[in-house]
């Protein structure tokens, strides 16, 4: 399985606002809104960082519940396979492709769709992958069953899922891209 990490070329990969203090994170978001108002990230709501921290705590707890042993407080984010939608997220989008053979898959968790709507409680359509975090083995069964969302829902017409999100709970395997 190929995992993609999309990022702003000038900032570099695997830079997470979650690794910053609340104050510094808010400054970064404000700077993006000011300097690049047309990129997707600039359109985040004012309480985005607060919500993100809440969802990341849920993800971490759910990862531990399924037997995960996170080495990071918050994950690095990737997606399963190429997702053209992410080309719009940044002004100068770049990406890294990593095969899961290069990573310790026990340090990965997955949501079928973005983790925020997956765990928001706002989507009440009864689909089995709502409010669920999957292991590497489990997500393969879900993808076999439903396909990749970016193929059947690239423009969100059929729900909030348009990719499979990957949470990477370690820096191991990513060292060559980390500062």
Question: Can you put this structure into words, describing what you see?
Answer:
The chain has five helices and five strands, in the order E-H-H-E-E-E-H-H-H-E. It has a five-stranded antiparallel beta sheet with strand order 3-1-2-5-4, covered by helices on one side. It has helices at 22-35, 48-65, 115-120, 136-146, 149-152; strands at 2-8, 76-80, 93-99, 108-112, 164-168. With 179 residues, it is α+β, with helices and mostly antiparallel strands. It has one domain.
Q: Characteristics of this structure?
A:
16% strand; alpha+beta; single chain; 179 residues; 5 strands; plasmid; five-stranded antiparallel sheet
List the helices and strands and how they pair.
Blueprint: E1 2-8, H1 22-35, H2 48-65, E2 76-80, E3 93-99, E4 108-112, H3 115-120, H4 136-146, H5 149-152, E5 164-168
Antiparallel strand pairs: 1-2, 1-3, 2-5, 4-5
Keywords: Plasmid
